[in-house]
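Feature request disguised as a bug: please show the residue count (248) next to RRM domain-containing protein in the output. Example input:
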Amino acid sequence: MFGSGGYEVGSKRQRMMQSNPYLAVGTGPTSFPPFGYACGFPVVRLRGLPFNCADIDIFKFFSGLDIVDVLLVSKNGKFSGEAFVVFAGPMQVEISLQRDRHNMGRRYVEVFRCSKQDYYNAVAAEEGAYEYEVRASPPPTGPSRAKRFSEKEKLEYTEVLKMRGLPYSVNKPQIIEFFSGYKVIEGRVQVVCRPDGKATGEAFVEFETGDEARRAMAKDKMSIGSRYVELFPTTREEARRAEARSRQ
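Example output, currently without the count:
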């Protein structure tokens, strides 16, 4: 099976890394990308993909663009709803970013920039080198790896959590139901909208205590409707700024 530009889908990643000037890894002092290729590594990250998504669906989503590689990210043996897409050049990346929040089936897909290291880390994880985590530096080694806390667990918690990846049609009662069993302050549930009134897929939820917000992180990556929802610790100030932007 071949995608746009004649690249074979889901295989021969090593061949592509050797043949593409962006992906090639040199060992000598003169191993530089060719002239005109110094605009950054042409990769984007996708989030919110349907769980039955395949490589070919991503090629169709970016129809007309020249894709070099598609990497579907798995966690614990299951597709995570995320992927990395490498394009033939930086201009392709700029065009791909215009498809942020376009739909694939019933789900809108987030498209955003990421680093070369993020992509290489994910490739290494696919090969079994280490458990996948998004990092800006090489992964740590040693027997303590299995005991590492996630990046979210290391963050400082307030009473507020940010939700991302919500269905556009979500309402406050649905969010309160999502956190059933946790001490949500019902009057402090804020669904974020653009100035034109359209939902952004984000919300802020305040709990009675910071410890309760931390406990509610157990709902991270669980679903509302057909979409899995990501949770992040945040602050009242960020929630206020989001509310102010929606009123502009």
